[in-house]
Design goal:
2 domains; two-stranded antiparallel ribbon; 2 strands; binds zinc ion
Length: about 120
C-alpha cells in the first residue's frame, strides 16, 4: 500500500547536490519532499501521453495494445512513479522511459520527444 504522505517540519538532510539543506519530509515513510521547481505529474498526464503515442505509432505501423498500456501504468504504479510528493518530473521521466521501452519496441529518443 502506497503511503499517502504526511508532511512534517523540515530537517537537515542531504539534497541532490550533496549539500546539507533543510527539507520537509513524510512522517510516515520518511520520504523527502521534492522541492525542485519541476513538480511531478499524476498518472493522468502519463496516460494521456500513452494514448497520444498509441495513435501516432499506429500511423507508422507500430501497434500498441490497450493491455500494453495497462501493464505500463501498472508497473509505473508499482515503482511508485506517480508519487508527486517525493519525485521530481526528471526522475519520473526516467522511470517512464525505462518502463515504456520495455513494453514497446521503440527508441528511447522517440519516447523522450513526448515528455
Ligand atoms: Zn509517506
Amino acid at each position: 500500500m502506497a503511503c499517502t504522505h504526511e508532511e512534517i517540519d523540515k530537517d537537515w538532510l542531504p539534497s541532490d547536490n550533496k549539500l546539507i539543506r533543510k527539507h520537509p519530509y513524510c512522517r510516515c515513510c520518511g520520504k523527502v519532499k521534492n522541492t525542485s521547481s519541476l513538480r511531478a505529474k499524476r498518472m493522468g498526464f502519463f496516460a494521456n501521453i500513452l494514448s497520444k503515442m498509441r495513435s501516432d505509432f499506429e500511423r507508422k505501423g507500430i501497434k500498441i495494445t490497450q493491455s500494453q498500456i495497462r501493464l505500463i501504468l501498472k508497473e509505473l504504479e508499482l515503482k511508485e512513479a506517480f508519487d508527486v510528493f517525493s519525485l521530481s518530473f526528471d526522475v519520473q521521466k526516467g522511470l517512464f522511459i525505462e518502463v515504456v521501452a520495455k513494453y514497446i519496441g521503440v527508441s528511447r529518443r522517440s519516447l523522450e520527444s513526448y515528455l
